[in-house]
Predict the 3D structure of the following.
Amino acid sequence: MSTNVFAKTVRGFTSALERTLVSEITAHESGLLQSLDPRVKLVGLLALVVAAALSRKLAVTAALFALGVVLALASRIALWSLAKRVWVVVFAFTFMIAAPALFLTPGQVLYSLPFGGLTLTSQGLRSTVLLIARVETAVTLSTLLVLTTPWMHLLKALRTLMVPVEIIALLAMTHRYAVLLMETANSMFESRQSRLVGRLNGHEHRHLMVNTGGVLLSKTLDLGNQVFLSMQARGFRGEVYLLNDFRLRGWDYVAMSGFAVAATAAVLAGR
Amino acid sequence: MPESLSFDAGKSEVLEFEVENVRYEYDRIPALQGLSLRVRAGECIALLGANGSGKSTLLRLMDALYFACKGTLRFRGTALTEAAMEDDAFALGFRRRVGLVFQNPDIQLFNPTVFDEVAFGPLQLGWPRAEILERVHATLAWIGAEHLKDRAPYRLSGGEKKRVALASVIVLDPDVLLLDEPTAALDPRSQSQVIDLMESWNNGKKTIITATHQLEILGEISRRAIVLEHGVVVADASPDEILANTELLESANLIHSHRHLHGGLTHKHTSPYLRHEHRKPD
Amino acid sequence: MHIPDGYLSPSSCAVMYAASAPCWWQALRRTRRKLFGRTLPLLSLFAAFSFVIMMFNLPLPGGTTGHAVGVAVAAIVLGPWASMLAISLALAIQALFFGDGGITTLGANCFNMAIAGSFAAWGIYQLVSLGAAPDSRRRIVAAALAGYGAVNLSALLAAIEFGVQPMLFRDVTGAPLYAPYPLSIAIPAMMAGHLTIAGAAEAVMSAGLFSFLRSNEPALVGITSMPVQAASPTPRRLWGALGVVLLLTPLGILAGGTAWGEWAPQDFSDAAARARIAAASGQSAPPVAAPSGLARLASLWTAPLPDYAPHFVKSAAFGYLLSAMFGVGMILAVTWILRRAMQYANQRSRQ
């Protein structure tokens, strides 16, 4: 596991940085969801996520999933990328967690395994399938939000959910510096790796990892103080102001009613 | 406020900054040790000094981000103290008139997009919305960065970052501009872009104080050069005089004489910048 | 232990948002009042740091790797209120912009990791390091325990949230609608991974970061505290608060305890099945050992009970629950003993 841990961590950073880039590109495509006011999109997609979470019927969950696929297609999001980023990952993860429930849920026996005395129950099957379908649907819908909205628009749209303006400023800054710190950490690891001679044992590895974290933390704190100075220098007095210029257009009202109808129908049908 | 664009700068007899015997310490490590300096309105000054000579500290004191431990620092007659900066009216007036561009643009660019970055200052000063939009667009056009307005700061190149950082301060149209190493770590083209921007903005009316250790830009950015060493002023003269004083530059660690071996012969030369003198006609 | 969308019922999510909201509000109010804006960048930067540190793969003894959250360092440097905001921000960024962890479950995740985690970490650190010299080893132990305790409390809370789902939400046929495992499975499966791997990762990272900070940024973690930090509360109040947390945990579970009866005990006493569950529900912590240690503790509990004891007390589930509680209690006890021992040593050396 010598360079493994570094490589794994660096891969994590690269893929996260890549994701921000991909969302920035897809968010500027001309598609259905991209054309909507971010507030409408935020509230609308969230309503669908909640409807998916409320649904107790597989058919309704499946319908919501299908709606997600249609929205993705109409927003020029390649299905294979959605499959790679969401569907496969979510399925693998959820199935791993839910699989034992197939046998552990008491109920009507469908099939007895020839070994171990395990029985597959209809309740277990239902429960597992419903869980996987629901998680897939919810994650698909929320990923659509991320993929079709420039994230600072998404941020400002949070105002409509009564998120305080300070929190929005904090989120904006957190995201901005998370990217910077990821890049910093990445280059720290890369320079470490380039100077690494021989194999390290677990303890040395741990030590290196923790130390890198420490250096990153002191950089973080220094950056925090400096950023505060630079905010002060431009008149920051502890109050946060944001400039919002979203304007609802006719199309947004259509979309709003569309979301409302779909979510309400799903909630009613899914009971 | 934007109405006061013609604040009473430009008259060269007005004293902009009076720095008197200022001392500043970080955790008992002195950065400035009794530094004195006078800056008249409309001057273009270069603060020269090696790393750790106190340039950045001085700029931060002049921008009322740090406060002198001893001595006084006045801006247009008013001492810059913590108490003075707690007064909202004074503080906002000061922030509007004095702008500081930080060396590291990652510190300066803390907003999610370029547009928000440039709009940050005006928003803090409470300008009317329409005014902000207009000024921000004008400033972005001026730095040639309109196409970047929705870009996140981490998607900018080094030169673009520097220009946006400059725009984020200049949008307020301050009378005094403090610049910390504006051209450090830039490629030659970005470097000259930044210098051109500073010159086109200045127009002879503004006070500009630039901290740098790059001697090659001295002639373009200043009419007066001040050399700092260990937190005190060791020289204060015209850029030409400073550049001619090799001994001074060497002792202030601004140039470094070194020996080369050319075909068995050794010869000594100091800095290539000394021969590189092209001043723009005034 | 990020809970993704879909595992908790919307009503549970709403409850968790409702539980988090007053804490956030209070935290925002306190940090705003204390710092006139300096917190704003510091909080964001700490949140960004926590976001990044969650991506560090930390090699652990035994050949596995784990991830830390950074909650203990945040709590020690920023104090519990600012820390809970910082960690919440990191979780929100993950959920909103990177699609990790759910949006509907954000309230629950923040409650478990940011809010309860910050309080636990801060409390444990204050308790263990009480009266310790700035350069004493005890402070490093305190930081490690703070991380360990915080992560395990977070995991326990998440497990409880999972575990109540099948009790409360089933369809007409009795099939669970959300997370399918009852408390008796959810708690040991979750805790097995956290008492070992995730807890160790957090402890190692907390201790390491703390000692790094102490030698490089002593002002942040030493006796001279940041302006953000609240004044140290009296130890009595701290013990009181921890006691309440400890008491509330099982009470909440006992309230819904009847659901256990429906589960055949052999389902989770079967070693193979249990191993699978443990591996599966250990979430982000990869290879999870079968909770054999917990099982032993469980039988330890049930064995000496007389036959006429109420049925549920004898159930393995109850044993698991108690062993989980026992884990938390043990942390506290060790904490207390360590503190006493060190105080005693200090007094001796002064005399």
In short: Residues 202-233 of chain A form the longest helix (32 residues). The two ends of chain A are 50 Å apart (CA to CA). Residues 157 and 163 of chain A are 9 Å apart (CA to CA). Chain A has a mean pLDDT of 84.
